[in-house]
Predict the structure of Ferrochelatase.
Amino acid sequence: MPFRKEPPFAHGSLPSSAIVLVNLGTPDEPTPRAVRRYLKQFLSDPRVVEIPAFIWWCILHLVILPFRSGKSAAKYRTIWTKEGSPLKVHTQKQAALLEKTLAERGHEGVKVVMAMRYGSPSLHDVLARLQAEHCQRIVLLPAYPQYSGTTTASVWDAVFAHYAGVRNVPELRLVRHYHDHEAYIEALRTEVEAYWEANGRGDKLVMSFHGTPKRTLMLGDPYFCECHKTARLLAVALGMGADEYIVTFQSRFGKAEWLQPYTAQTVQDLARQGLGRIDMICPGFTSDCLETLEEINMEVRQDFEAAGGKEYHYIPCLNEAPAWITGLAEIAEQHLIGWPTILTPAQRAAQKRDVQVGAQHAAQLGA
């Protein structure tokens, strides 16, 4: 296949490093047309839907896109802000704060940028821009704490597809997961305890993770196990017993069996059992989005109250919480090890001399 044209080489520039914070994606606007465009890209990914291509094409284009786009757009409108999609806004802020925090910790030359697996800014465009800026080292940091073939692996697919057409490929490091990372668990603990201190504590903590078809677990996807490990470690950090929390899975789609127990059904059962108050948290989402703000904080709340529940408290995602930005920095630093992102004045001067010598040599050769 032909390779894309390389950007002109800039003699005299210092090698640079970057972190790409990758989230799932969002429509550009809460309109049926924009949602349809987003859903088409998202649901056309074979990592997301493992159904024979022709059969799924018919279902997607003849049933889902014509009828679901308008309904989804209406849901997006209930959470849309003046700044735009909450997921995109939070991810942008996280990237900016992460770059600032890394600079404060001495990594002054590390750029942090945001990309979306589906929608904009696309991974392809972001990686092309970094290439144009002669970035030679890139850490790919998905916003998914738990690994799944439906999410993390899809990011790798897009990264490798992009670089299949690039001649001068930079050094890449891929963050597979951080579901049990001490800094991630500590950030969750800090947020839960802060919420409890301000609002009191419920009778049960429900930890809801995004669902996947049960078939993926049976075929070897570790997501289910990583979700449970996250929940167990958070419960230990909070000093909770096994009967004080429960793990559930949300966003079921279609008729196939998905990971259980289902979130909506579980909260209804808890209400019928007489639990007066539940606290809900979504540890698998690092930014609030449609699935947390509309599905969990609106739809599931209604399910709980309709079944007789009295108090439903939603604990927001980590978003830009200081403990989470610190945690992101610690996770990122582990994947920057060995790269010259922190230089002493002597090392920086030596590096600049090397670049100057290289530029002079290139000039002599007529480059």
User: Anything to note?
Assistant: The chain has two domains: 16-179+322-346, 182-314. The chain has a mean pLDDT of 93. The radius of gyration is 23 Å.
